[in-house]
Amino acid sequence: MSKKNWLTLGLIVGVILIAGGVLLFFNPWGSNSSLINPLSQSEEGANLKTWEDPAGFQFSYPEEIEIDNHEEDEENYAHLELTEKNHPGKILIWMKDKVEKNLEAWVTNQSGNPQSFDSELAGQPAKKLAFSSPKKLVTAAFDQEVIIIVEVFPEDEWWNETYQQIIDSFELIPLAGEEESTVNAPGAWQGSGGETGIIDEGEEIIE
């Protein structure tokens, strides 16, 4: 074999070896896949915290969120405001005495001509309303004597996913003197046996 042929063969072998090494290093299915996609499934859920509210509910939320429970509000059972400094927008969560007899009447009384959809919140039948001005999404459910309202003002797209995370994880929890089996049952109000069913507030705080 001539010297020229040897050089050509060596060049081809070298190119093959280099290409193989590059593919092995950047192969997303190989041992270096964590370098390409450092967020594993377990790490994705590791940044969630759980809020347990004295009014009788809990939900999961991203740990970077700050929660103000508006202790100055003495009228409502719960009044939470969720914000995040890097994302404009907010989520409000309310638990208050109901005024209307049913959800349909509550929807009718909402101004702004929102779109209405059937939904679910904490195992209860709910209504989801989409408002255009101001732009917000509201999910509401009756729990016998109270109404629970979760609303988002999604100035940033990030809030849409966060809102869904809160809705999906939202649960009613027993207060002192309540049995676990009564919580989350349709129409089971989360009162503690007194006139209002409230205990002292904690310190924590679409498009």
Quick description:
This protein is an alpha+beta fold and 207 residues long. The protein contains five helices and ten strands.
Write up this protein:
This protein is α+β, with helices and mostly antiparallel strands and 207 residues long. It folds into two domains: 34 residues; 134 residues, Mog1/PsbP, alpha/beta/alpha sandwich (Protein Transport Mog1p, Chain A, 3-Layer(aba) Sandwich), CATH 3.40.1000. The strands form two sheets. The chain has a seven-stranded antiparallel beta sheet with strand order 3-4-5-9-8-7-6. The longest helix is centred in the N-terminal third of the chain and has 24 residues. The C terminus is likely disordered.
- At the first level of CATH, the class of the largest domain is Alpha Beta
CATH topology of the largest domain: Protein Transport Mog1p, Chain A
- Residue windows where pLDDT falls under 50 for at least 5 positions: 22-45, 186-207
Mean pLDDT: 77
Radius of gyration: 27 Å
Terminal residue distance: 70 Å
CATH superfamily of the largest domain: Mog1/PsbP, alpha/beta/alpha sandwich
H/E element order: HHHEEEEEHEEEEHE
Number of helices: 5
Main β-sheet: number of strands, strand sense, barrel status? 7 strands, antiparallel
Widest beta sheet: strand line-up: 3-4-5-9-8-7-6
CATH arch. level architecture of the largest domain: 3-Layer(aba) Sandwich
> How much beta, percentage-wise?
25-35%
Number of strand elements: 10
Oligomer: single chain
Structural class: alpha+beta
Helix content: 10-25%
Q: Into how many domains do the coordinates divide?
A: 2
